[in-house]
Amino acid sequence: MKDELFTMMGELPAMSPELMARMKEEANRNLLRMKHFSEMVMNPREPKVGPTPRQEIYRTNKSRLWRYESRRTIRTPLLFVPNLGISRPYIFDLMPKGSFVEHMTQQGFDFYLVDWGVFGEEDNGLTVEDAVTKILPRLARKALESSGASEMSVLGYCMGAPLSASFVTTHPEFPLKNYINMAGPIDFAHVGLFGKWLAPEVFDVDKYVDTLGSIPAEMVKMGFKLLKPTMDVSTNLNLWWNLWNPEYVSGFNALNKWANEYLPFPGEFFRQWVRDFYQQNKLIKGELVMDGRRVNLREIRCPVLAVGAKEDNIAPPACVKPLVDVVSTRDKEYVELPGGHISLIAGRGASVHCWPKVSSWLAARS
Amino acid sequence: MADNPNQQLLDMWKRQVEEGTQTWLRMMGQGPGAAPTMDPQSFWRPFMDQGMAAWSKVMTQGAAPSPDLMAQWKQFLDQWIAAWSRVLEQAMGTDTFAKLMGKQVEGFLNVSGPAKKAAEQQVEASLSGLGIPSRSQVTALARHIAQVEEKIDGLEDKLDRVLRRLNDTPARPERA
Q1: In sequence order, what E strands does A216-284 have?
Q2: Strands A93-95 and A86-87, how do they pair?
Q3: Residue B66: which of A23, A123, A201 has the nearest Cβ?
Q4: Kind of pairing, strands A152-157 and A78-81?
Q5: What is the 3-state secondary structure (H, E, C) of A115-145?
Q6: Could you identify which of A66, B41, B89, B100 might form a hypothetical disulfide with A113, taking C-beta atoms 3.0 to 4.6 angstroms apart as the criterion?
Q7: Which pLDDT score, from 0 to 100, does residue A2 have?
């Protein structure tokens, strides 16, 4: 019997050592995949997010202003304005070595984050105008006071870009040093699928808000999932493929936590956001009026950087770029970087392409 | 190859996908005779062929798949998902889809609106009978607190402005 087995082994086709090594590596990976999968299912751990130290500077209703202190080698601090509703802002400080906030503070910028908060039914009367003319000016002033600086740069991300642009143009007393639009829609004529689905002919925003009151997080989630129906399949496929890698798994857990925490919209905010921006495109046309003051993007006279993401289907590059065409400054630049709406600012690609671009552009002007 | 039952199964699947494509195009009003604005088949046919080739290789080898084949299979799935994504994006970008979705949303609102109102009224009445504050009463209270906070913030703003103005005003020389 022993001899027979020996003979059979001898008849196997010769395998190159290289192929043998790769087969062994693949077998090891499969074992690790099984181990990590069973850990994820049997013993799921809550990922730690938001690792950069911070302090609360100011709080009004649900909104807060956070300060992330740096060595302050750059004189002008940065005010970061993200989207209101939809998702939580810890995506910008997701995990160590995977955080835009950490990168900016390491580069010497004092970083102030506007955290709009989670609005409830009692805030259904809050409008875009309230956010721009009441909440944002207060937080910006507190940031300026806290920093002791005479000027401040503003970075608007996603919806935070039209909101912050509306703020800086209607508040000329705010000492704006530089302005950055990161993946923020400006010309809503080119805003992609959302623009199509929210068109006045097919979407009655008044009926929607009057019926639902506030826009529940589940509805927001459905809209974003519909935008990319294959996202979950490709995410899970990539997870399976990289499941052997513990770093990938911890990154996935943190991102997955964030990606499943959708936030509701206050009803009146949603009504004005859809009607004035998506349906009537008032911002780029110069027809938007906030607290009796016209929002005129030409009033932005400081250096401007606009950053679009090549595969962004929420704010496609065509709706981000027009900002540089309308502002009144010669020092303006538009860059289109690889990635989608989120991967532009979070993840490994962002740390290679976007963060160094933004910090170096800003450092040269701060 | 056609004798291989696995291959037969995959051939059948491939035929079904192609027939499904034709049905999809007819549904979207882009069948024969309509102006062609998109051709999903042009996206996924190369990937399907590539997938078939990968599977054929696995079948003919008759042994455990090598790491190369696993990588090839992953690549095939990535491309296949990307192709589907493009097809769906194009389909969802049509006016027909937007209108369809608008009607679905309106239908949902027509049903959920009255149902929500009736449920709220019933819960409100029940809680009122038990002497327990209702959701709308708690919400109203929270709104009131938010309004008070807003007024205090407004006063703080005004006070700040006054203080700034006072600080900016040059001090008068004292009289002897």
Answers
A1: 262-263
A2: unpaired
A3: A23
A4: parallel
A5: ECCCCCHHHCCCCHHHHHHHHHHHHHHHHHH
A6: A66
A7: 45
Q: Which positions in chain A touch B153 (Cβ < 8 Å)?
A: 60, 134, 138
Give, for A153, the enclosing helix (H) or strand (E). strand A152-157
Contact indicator for A343, A309 with CB cutoff of 8 Å = yes
Nearest CA in chain B to A219: B105
- Token reading at A23: 């087969």
CB atoms under 10 Å from CB of B160, counted, come to 13
pTM exceeds 0.90, yes or no:
no
CA-to-CA separations, B135 to A223, B120, B139, in angstroms, rounded: 27, 9, 6
Burial B29-46 (b: 16+ CB within 10 A, else e): ebeeeeeeebebbebbbe
Measured distance CA(A23)–CA(B67) in Å, rounded = 6
HSE of A124 in the Cβ direction (CA atoms, 13 Å)? 14
d(CA A100, CA A91): 9
A319 sits in which H/E element: helix A317-320
Reported ipTM: the value is 0.79
How does DSSP assign A68-129, residue by residue? Answer: E-----SSS-EEEE--SSEE-GGGGEEETTEEHHHHHHHTT--EEEEE-----GGGTT--HH
Q: A3: Cβ–Cβ under 8 A, 6 or more apart, which residues?
A: none
What is the model's pLDDT at position B28?
61
Please tell me if residue B77 touches chain A, with a CB cutoff of 8 Å: yes
Amino acid at B161: R
First CA to last CA distance, chain A: 81
Q: Give the three-class secondary structure for A209.
A: helix
**Does the structure show a pLDDT above 50 at A5?**
no
- Domain coordinates of chain A in residue numbers? 59-363
Residue at token pair 């809503």: A188
Which CATH architecture fits A59-363? Answer: 3-Layer(aba) Sandwich (3.40)
Q: Which residue has the higher pLDDT, A43 or A132?
A: A132
Considering only CB atoms, B81 lies closest to which of A61, A122, A234, namely: A234
Q: Assess A202–B contact: CB distance below 8 Å, yes or no.
A: yes
Q: In this structure, are residues A100 and A346 in contact, taking their beta carbons and an 8 Å threshold?
A: yes
